[in-house]
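Standup notes, structure subgroup. Blocker cleared on the zinc ion input:
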Amino acid sequence: MKVHAEPKPLTGPLPGGTRGATVTVQPLSGGEVQFPAASFERPGGPFETLKASGLFTSRSTGWWWVQCPAFLITHPSAGTILVDTSLHSSIAAEPGENFGRLASRFARPRIEPGKDLPSQLRGLGADPRSIPLVVMTHLHVDHASGISEFPSSTFVVSSAEWAAATSGSRPILRGYRPQHYDYVFDYRLVDFDDPKIDSYATFARTFDLFGDGSIRLAFTPGHTLGHMCVLARLRDRDFVIAGDAVYTVRQLEGGPEQPRPHDPHLWRRSLQELQLFAREYPQAVIVPGHDPKQWPTLEAKYE
Ligand SMILES: [Zn+2]
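Run returned:
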């Protein structure tokens, strides 16, 4: 599978950093998807794979509606940074077109009228066309669906994720839909094998986005081969956008594992980095990718 975009490597920090800077984080949901519960947490017992497919599970009881979060980060000198793009606003009227027929059957998406991410961003004074930077935790359909709504932004992705999402056959079976990212946008790739990559707290491989410690990208592969978490420094604690490295708080606390991470060994290693972080920094806010119980408890803005 060939895509047209020609990404460039991101080897050093982006301009705009300020020593000691702290940021604010606003969690936003640009829609929801409905997945079989067994595709988030291993149900155990026989027929696990069938249960995760949802084919024999009632939608009313065995499927979860979960948020597709995005996060608006405001940096005092680098401006606004969006993490993940949630769902494309066209899904409000026509879900099949953006998600594709196969994906929208397995993961039914929906957006409440007027609650799409671009509308919410505009409501917060952040015009989608003037957001300079978008960081992608990974490129799965429920995170990358809205990429085309940010044509003027620079996108930061890990080079391992880009490779995974743009090679091999039948990407949809691995959760990717190249139509979501096959644009000649400004993509910058972070190579976590680079010798300049550093550790931070319990994370072995991190990239300091502006060189001021305000936003760090932590390489947490396993869910996908190039997954990243985003660590944002608030005034007196860190805010961790865990992406799909963990789906739920229960998973972070050692509950049922993900049924089908791309690489189970790497997934457990990344999980341990997050678990150690949670133990060492209990004041940190950690937001898993799709926890329907935690989402309503989050504050509108973290400073
Ligand atoms: Zn995912």
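Discussed briefly. Residues 138, 140, 175, 223, 244 surround zinc ion (CB under 6 Å).
Next: hand off to the docking folks.
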